[in-house]
Design a protein that fits this description.
By secondary structure, the chain is an alpha/beta fold. The chain is built from 16 helices and 16 strands.
Length: 488
């Protein structure tokens, strides 16, 4: 079977923080390629990008790439032939991965060895609230409990169901599945509902972790653009009418990454259309509690019809508390529970007991997190306005991220320069299945103010290095839609 070569953006993402460390850039680049080849991530026969294209994406001189390729050619790891390009050598016999591995920079940065790079790529609280520490300190587990709860601890399922009820969405415990974070919830839904070749409606841009799961499932993506007021509902309805996708995935509240909020009337229309056409609609509710203004109405899609909700405590409490959930019809939850049992027999029970206790008095935790995020949001925007005034940075109403547009250049290439200045950012192109958002970056404001200031200072120095070169180079055209993404 002919090996599948990664796209340019996928390869750049897999290279990760290749420029960290000491020594000439070409040696650092060669070392990272060597690791990917030896690990089998780049399989024998894989075609690598031409020198100039890779150099442009990495924001380095062409000679850096040429020297790295030549070093690996001399080692026997690459074969370079005029007219046929640069390929991983057949002698590199390490078998490639049998399943699709992530090329998502968000996850890859977490897997890299900790260093001095400030991670503006992963938005999650860096400190758990004191209530979490206290709950663990005073936790007592019941006697006589086997500890296996594939569908989730009954007390936690009840507590989450009651929260939905308080929002006006009548929910029973049998409609709740406890998962190891929202990512597992999305993974289980994808495994259950999406077969290879099935269509899935996604927003463009959207949460990259969802794109990873859908691509692993060999889904055909039907991306619909997101604007300042959320997803284009009229276009989404057209997609559902034309393609009848197996699933539709949306983030209506503080959309990840743009921060937009879908209006209630638009949300109602989306739900009614999905229900009428028989398309399962997944509402990613992970950020729904993070409104800056106290008492802000929640535009949850659940009151408007049958919706599958996916939530978690990772953004309000702490990412290390791996507690998420899926809310849906009892019959769907029962099927998901049987699927989850195959994989892990149930999520961590002590963490579930702690989560149930926290939900008993959750309002103060939410209010404290919202105040902290609002302060971080205002501080980050002020620092960007001071040091990077040419960047477009609209305010958000909640959530954790800003959607920044560069005045020129390419987000993937700039992210490489930013890494060399000690800060990791998410390029917009890695989150956009339409092939757009090439000038955009996702920045989060979860870090303490002094760290945010340091991050912006590093970004400003990176921009000073990158901007003159980018201003004199025509911007690359929007990437063509990948083979597993079909535009409307």
């Amino acid at each position: 079977m002919k090996p599948i070569s990664p796209s340019l953006n996928e390869l750049v993402a897999r290279l990760g923080r290749w420029s960290a460390g000491r020594g000439p850039l070409y040696l650092l680049l060669a070392a990272r390629f060597r690791q990917l080849i030896d690990e089998g991530v780049l399989a024998p026969g894989v075609l690598l990008p031409p020198d100039r294209r890779l150099a442009g994406a990495l924001a380095v001189g062409r000679t850096t790439v040429v020297a790295a390729y030549d070093a690996l050619r001399q080692e026997g790891r690459l074969v370079r032939r005029q007219g046929s390009g640069t390929r991983v050598a057949p002698a590199a016999l390490t078998p490639g991965p049998r399943v699709r591995e992530t090329s998502n920079p968000l996850f890859l940065h977490l897997l890299d060895t900790p260093d001095d790079v400030i991670l503006m790529s992963c938005a999650a609280p860096v400190e758990p609230p004191p209530q979490l520490r206290e709950a663990y300190r005073t936790m007592t587990l019941p006697a006589g409990d086997l500890g296996y709860h594939p569908a989730g601890l009954p007390a936690l399922r009840e507590a989450i169901a009651e929260r939905y009820g308080a929002r006006g969405v009548a929910t029973g415990a049998e409609q709740i599945l406890i998962t190891t974070g929202a990512q597992q919830g999305l993974s289980l839904l994808t495994r259950l509902l999406v077969a290879p070749g099935d269509g899935v409606l996604v927003e463009a841009p959207t949460y990259p972790g969802a794109l990873d799961l859908l691509r692993e499932a060999a889904a055909v993506l039907h991306p619909v653009a997101v604007g300042p007021d959320g997803v284009d509902v009229a276009k989404a309805v057209t997609v559902m009418e034309r393609h009848r996708p197996a699933l539709a995935y949306v983030v209506p509240r503080f959309q990840n990454p743009t921060g937009s909020v879908l209006a209630p009337l638009a949300g109602r229309r989306l739900v009614e259309a999905a229900n009428g056409l028989g398309v399962p609609l997944v509402d990613d509710e992970v950020l729904t509690d993070l409104a800056f203004e106290a008492g802000a109405p929640s535009p949850s899609l659940s009151p408007y019809g049958e919706v599958i909700g996916v939530g978690s405590l990772s953004k309000v409490v702490w990412a290390g508390l791996r507690i998420g959930w899926v809310r849906g019809p009892a019959s769907l939850i029962a099927r998901l529970a049987r699927l989850k049992a195959i994989h892990d027999l149930g999520s961590d029970v002590p963490a579930q007991w702690v989560a149930a206790r926290l939900l008993g008095d959750f309002a103060p935790i939410v209010a404290d997190r919202a105040r902290t995020l609002r302060a971080g949001h205002d501080h980050l925007r002020a620092e960007l306005a001071r040091l990077l005034p040419s960047w477009s940075c609209p305010p958000a109403e909640g959530g954790q991220t800003l959607w920044v547009r560069l005045p020129h250049g390419d987000g993937v290439a700039f992210a490489q320069v930013a890494l060399r200045h000690g800060v990791a950012v998410l390029p917009g192109a890695t989150m956009d299945a339409l092939g757009g958002s090439t000038r955009c970056l996702r920045l989060h404001f979860v870090l303490p103010p002094d760290v945010l200031s340091q991050a912006v200072d590093r970004l400003a120095r990176a921009w000073s290095e990158y901007a003159p070169q980018a201003a004199s180079t025509p911007s690359p055209p929007a990437a063509s839609v990948t083979l597993n993404a079909i535009a409307v």
